[in-house]
Structure formats: structure tokens, C-alpha cells
Amino acid sequence: MFDIGGALCWVMNGDELCPVPKFSREIAGFVLEVYFFLNDQEAYDPLDPNGNITIKWDIISWTPDGYVAVVTMNNYQKYRHISTPGWSLGWTWAKKEVIWSMVGGQTTEQGDCSRFKGNIPHCCKKNPIVVDLLPGTPYNQQIANCCKGGVLSSWAQDQSKAVAAFQISVGSAGTTNKTVKLPQSFTLKAPGPGYTCSPAKIVKPTQFIQPDKRRVTQALMTWNVTCTYSQFLAQRTPTCCVSLSSFYNDTVVPCSTCACGCQGNSSLTGDCVNPDSPHLASVVSNSGHDKSSITPLVRCTRHMCPIRVHWHVKLNYKEYWRVKVTVTNFNYRMNYSDWNLVIQHPNFENLTQLFSFNYQSITPYGSINDTAMLWGVKFYNDFLMQAGSLGNVQSELLFRKDKSTFTFDKGWAFPRRVYFNGDVCVMPPPDAYPWLPNAGSRQEVPLLVLMMTSLVALVLLHAYA
User: Fold this and answer.
1) pTM value?
2) What is the three-class DSSP state of 38?
3) Structural domain tally of the chain?
């Protein structure tokens, strides 16, 4: 909590919104930027503090020159998933290991295997990169939890689809627990940068329950790698913004100007297309040829964000109030499948009904139920189309009023924090929020101004006395 112009503001945890005088907006913005910058650098998410992707490497048998291992990736992040074109996992071998064969995955390059005669390894690179196989892969090349095209669901949406695995046969390696050397410098792209991985650490061997559930076996050796996400590493500019409106005020608060970058700065924001341009169709069709590109091709706007989330306070009843939430895709290069939205608002504890979205409560602060995860209904609106007339999804939320806390004053009806696909969205400045009609002309007078005015009045009074 800090004091700007005489108004106490809980800025760092978003527990309360307060009007910030216009002359202090730059200071507040600077503090917020520093705060979120530090959070991003440390890969710490206040709404999912324990979220990570854990990579487990289980050696299940020895071979004459190495071992066979099953590598499993578990996405323990509540609301951050991995979408198309999927994850890629890399590392650096400690010695001169090679990959003889793989099941459920493949390396992107074979490398130089000229030193081998006859039987050629699957990969001879010092730093291999592994990707998942595609759906429809022949059964003799599959193992459990493989072959999803690298797509991983978030833990809250579908735990059964939040796991990936592949089997690897490693040669020119140790053949005992004491001679095996752990791989180094793990990297995870999903599909772009953003994850930082810890060094491999030997842990207690994994135990496996047999199908008949009457026998338990265990890995010969197990090590873990933990990868955590940083939005700053993934992209130096935000990927979404929030706009606001209400039934009690004609003002529509748009996304902040240059919220996700400015036009003309293609190195950060990607290219921009005017929707009225006669060349729009050709530009969009040509951009689709590079399926691996994650650089957005967005509609030219003031905010230049690929995604906009609009929160509209729609209706006020005696015992309830209603909100409409709309997610709009401005990115011509991306169809967002299995998207999700995380919203923090103090009234989610009293959410009564939700239309056309799935809902799950997230409680990052123990028993405080003020954070909700929303996502589309399967085969209905879980697929957010690229920019255009169909590039939006929307729903309405009905809240019951708690008379001890409910108010429309001072921006209480608007969210404190919004995430789209795990990335925090840029909120408008608090002093721009729609005010109640009887408070629209109210001006906050800083305490320092009042003190100076009183001091001048006393000096003049003394002079004329």
C-alpha cells in the first residue's frame, strides 16, 4: 500500500481500486511496471505461485551401451497451456551420447552420424531437440500420453491432457547408476521462448503400478527438471488488454494506447493490417503459409494487442447484477484453441450463474474465493477464430449482491486483474474507469495542495492583520 496524492491505493495486490489523480498516473504506472517486471523476471505468478512444468526422466532398463528411459512432462500450471504448434524440449548431453531410437517423439535433426557403420542412430547431435508426434501416428510408434502434436492442456481444464511422454533409447552412455551422466542445459519452448528450466536433479525412483494393481515396480534411476514461465521472456510486450463500460455511464474506456506496442514497431508487435485495406485477403492468406510463426499479424488499432477482453456492467437488479464479458481476437495469424480467461474480482464468491462458458474457482490465497477461470464449451466456443467477424466469444455472468460489500462506486464493479491464456492483460488506469453519474464531476484534491493553500491563506491573513 502507498499514498499518492492523499489517496491510499492497494496497487500491488489489486485488493482495492481507488481514484488516482491525473498528475500521479505516471508514478503509479511506473510502480506497477517495476512490480510486474520483477515478478516476470523471477517467473513468479501471484495467482499460480506453484505452477510449473515438471520433466521426469525414468530409466526403465539397461542396454549394452546405455539405457532405455521414459520422459514424462506434467503441466502443473492451473491455467497456462501449450497450444499449436506445440512444445519442443532440448538439452545438452554430458558426454558423447547418441539416441538409438525413439517412440512417441522424434528429434528435429539427425546430426552427423558418419562415425557409425551399419546401424545408424536416430540422432547424433550434442544438443538434440525433441518434438511430439502428431495425432494418427501408427500404434507401434506410440506410448501412453504421446502423439498430441505437442499440445498440453492446463491442469485446471483437463488433467488427463496435461501430460506428455516419449520413450528414448540412449547409447554411448553409462550402464549403471554411478556411470550415467545427467543431461545439462534443458530448454523448453512452448512453442516460443518463455520457460526457464532448472538443472536436472536425481530424485527418488518413480514407482509404477501394474495394470492388475497387484504388483509395483520402480525405475532404475530417476531425475527431475522443473521449468517455470516468465511472460517477460516469452514476449517483451503484453499480448492482451482490457476495456471497460457500464450501463450507468456512457463512457467506454478503451484499451490504453500502445498497450501492446505501437504501430510501426514490427520488431515487438509484429505486422499490422488495416481491416479496410483492399489487400487484406492476400496478406492474411500469405501469412498462413508459415505455420510455425508465432509473431502476430494484428488488425491496426490504437492498442495493437492481439487479444482484447471487454468487461461490461450490463444490468442492476434488486438482488443481483449482471456482467457481459467479450473476448475479441485481432490476430489474423492465430486461431486460439482451448483458450482460457482468468479474472480476479471480489464478487466471484457470489457468482450465481454463468452462460456459455465453463467456470472453475481458483483460490491462490487460501480460502479467499475472488479468482475465476473461464473457458469455452467443447465444440461450441472453445475455438476462438482469428480476426474477423467471427473472431470473438462472449458470455454473461450473474452475481448475487452481498450488501456488506457491494457497490458500483470507485470502480468496484470492474476486475482487478485479467489473464488470457496465462498472460496478464494491460488494465486501463484507475482514474479512467466509468464513474457513477453523481460522482462524474468529482475531482480528487491532493493533500499537499490543501496544505499549501492553507499555508498561503495564513500568510496573507497575517500580512493584512
Assistant:
1) 0.80
2) helix
3) 2
